[in-house]
Amino acid sequence: MLNNFLAFPLKEIPIIAAVLIIAFSVHEFAHAYTAYKFGDSTAKDQGRLTLNPAQHLDPLGTIFMFVAGFGWARPVPVNRFHFKNPRLAGVIVSLMGPVSNFLLALIGYAILYFYVVTGTSADFPGFILQFLNYFVWINLVLFVFNLLPFPPLDGYRIIEDLVPPRTRAKLSHYEQYGALIFLVLVIIPPLNSVTISPIIGYVPELFLRSFQTLFSLFQ
């Protein structure tokens, strides 16, 4: 019965949970670390410059990951006024979260590919192969999902820093409505199935095929 409400089989939830803890923690740490290197210690001062998942997991975002197949962590606080070049640094800080998930997916695929090609994957316990497969897929989903141009996702923050100041002021005025629209798209299944879900399903698949093509060159 519970399986009907989950995006993943119930027996695989412990594996998914382990992947999410790593993926969310690294994502938010990447934001915090990059901001700190650019001169903003806000995240560090609030205890977010850490890989400790307890500091990063968002209850609602984690639940959505299990139910809908995508989710989010608690946003890292960033004060752009501490940056020497606020717009450029802001874009890089926002990008580093999704980029960290992309790199995790690439590393996971490299490990998986190596053991499959060398034939040693047959000696692996099944749960390790499951973990690696989910590790690659979930990190790719988080990479794509977080680049969507809706507040409070990273994609929206990137747009904020790229547009002229006057446009940014207008965006901030409508930000609360954008966040509400995004939440509606996420929560209502008929809308979700024709908006976010196709993107989350199709784009990570393209990257996965790109990984396959890239690593096949080393055979």
Shape designation:
globular
Which band does the percent of strand residues land in? under 5%
Number of helices: 9
Q: How far do the termini sit from each other?
A: 44 Å
Organism: Falsibacillus pallidus
Cofactor: Zn(2+)
Keywords: Cell membrane, Hydrolase, Membrane, Metal-binding, Metalloprotease, Protease, Transmembrane, Transmembrane helix, Zinc
Family: Belongs to the peptidase M50B family.
Can you describe this structure?
Its cofactor is Zn(2+). With 219 residues, the protein is mostly helical. It has one domain. It is built from 9 helices and no strands.
Provide key terms for this protein.
single chain; about 220 residues; mainly alpha; about 0% strand; globular
Short description:
This protein is mainly α. The chain has helices spanning 13-37, 42-45, 59-68, 86-117, 126-145, 154-162, 165-187, 189-192, 196-216. The chain has one domain (2-70, 78-213).
Topology, element by element:
Elements: H1 13-37, H2 42-45, H3 59-68, H4 86-117, H5 126-145, H6 154-162, H7 165-187, H8 189-192, H9 196-216
